[in-house]
Amino acid sequence: YKNDEEMEIMRWASKISSEAHCNVMRNVKPGQREMQLEAFSSKTVTRNISWAEFNLTLQFVDVDQVLPLS
Questions:
Q1: Which of 15, 20, 34, 38 is a good FRET partner for 50, with 20 to 30 A between their CA atoms?
Q2: CA atoms of 33 and 64, how far apart (whole Å)
Q3: DSSP 8-state secondary structure symbol assigned to residue 59
């Protein structure tokens, strides 16, 4: 089971991931390369948070503990 803090972090990461995915879908065109689509996704994520924060949020020390963001 997840505690309230873990659930909040998961919702936060999911919201940003969803926004990034929607941004890619709005901007995709035939013939584009994967790196061009990744740029749309990265722009969304970095607009919301730094990559370091995003990666730390998703790394778990063990099943019940989330790494701190600071």
A1: 34
A2: 39
A3: -
Tell which residue, 63, 67, 55, 62, has the closest CA to residue 17. Answer: 55
CA 11/CA 46 separation, integer angstroms: 17
Using a cut of 0.70, tell me whether the model's pTM lies above it. Answer: no
| Exposure string over 23-47, b if 16+ CB within 10 A, otherwise e | bbeeeeeeeeeeeebeebbeebbee
Three-state DSSP class for residue 40: helix
pLDDT, tens digit (0-9, with 9 covering 90-100), for 5-36? 888 888 888 888 898 889 889 988 888 888 88
Q: What is the DSSP letter of 49?
A: S
